[in-house]
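lol so apparently i was supposed to do this last week
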Amino acid sequence: MTKTILIAALFHETHSFVEQGTSLDDFSIKRGAELLARRGDASTIDGFLEVADEHGWTVIPANDYQAAPAGPVDHSVFVQFTAELLNTLRDSLARGRLDGIWLSLHGAHVTTESVDVEGDLLRMIRTVPGAETLPVFGVFDLHANFTELMSEGANCLVAYRENPHTDSRDMAVLSARLLARCLNEGAVPRMYTRNAPVMWAPPGTGTADSPMKDLEALARQIEAEDNGIWVANVIGGYSFSDVPSAGVAFSVVTTGPAEEAAHALDRLEQLAVDMRELGQPPEWDLDAAVLDIKSKSDEGGPFLIVEPSDNIGGGAPGDDTAVLRAFLRHGIDNAAVAIADAEAVAALASAKPGDTVKLTIGGKGSKLGAGPLEVEGTFLRRSDGKYVLEDRNSHIVASRGVNIDMGPSAVIQVAGVTVLLSSVKMAPADLGQLRSQGIIPESLKAIDIKAAVQHRRAYDKIMRGSYTVSTPGPCTSNIATLPFRRLRAGVFPFDA
Ligand SMILES: [Zn+2]
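anyway here it is w/ zinc ion bound
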């Protein structure tokens, strides 16, 4: 008999310490058939649809809301999203059979009124008559701040296992296959969760390195050893949401006894505590890093200056000028910097290739950074800012798919630095971003990277060296300096 599954997606990673909030206008919204049109775009929804097709499921597409990581979301967005989703849910239940719900979530979504959006959403789904025991499955980002409410409301949520997130679609497929297992076998799993007394900044959550590499390996071992455990999730956490649950967490999906789940969570938690110092990788002084690149004049490039403090994927504005200033200060030739600044792009509206232009760029999005910089340079070209990801497993594909739009964009040359100005901030997760704008990353000496980890899949394979630098900004790795108000007590590195 054909099974009927309702699907929805809600995706935001919310930075509590940036000034600018996130409103309905910032969200890309799809409803109904528009979700089904995501087939083939390499997103998590595309992954679910592949499994739905395999099993001949009838899919009821509800809604799909997503916005780039940024400040707290206006609560009315959540009210609208849940009203639409619950209406579709009630309607489907009223029409007859509904066999399950599948969700694509982030897990670190905070609104002006809720510190646990995903937990609240799942709780509200359970209040709908007929949905109390419906299987609720889904996929979520390993940068979630996981909660008890999430594990109470869902039967099976599967976290990405890689950072950069090369496996977001694969994990969506896995979660959908587990839903099929639940429907076929009649085995309904439940979730248990544990919040570890540890928080790591984004640079400490890459899965190529310890501690995440070791934690993921232990999770795979637990899944292999314990037949009752369907999934063991390692959740790196998101250190810029001011919520009680912020930081490292683990959850298991199981049909086995609670004691075995607790034992698995004990093992994972203990390893995280033992390795907590390794989640704080050291960072370079910016000038020392740029001078080191300059000293390598005969070694080619590119060398990366990675600045986690302006990490676009972490919610920073992506317009800080500290690295551009350092490149100019030290006379680095053949470097590139991308800065999100719609006003600067607009100011170049009448410029022609070869024109000398004088304008102020960047530094508008955060008071913590280096501030706006006045530059004089040469206008090179402009574009509509649209490009297709070169890599279908790029970190940003989970929610966006492969067709990227960074808005009207312009390229100018300032001394030895090529500056890409875009209207919309876009994380440097794919080489297509620069190449589509006529900037060839392999030919450069130095590149400014506004990220922590997510650039690595694209850039590690072309780089000659990388310097992660410590600069002031909203996504600082020095998380103990952030003004948390809601965080639970006893969390490293806040409490020894
Ligand atoms: Zn993430």
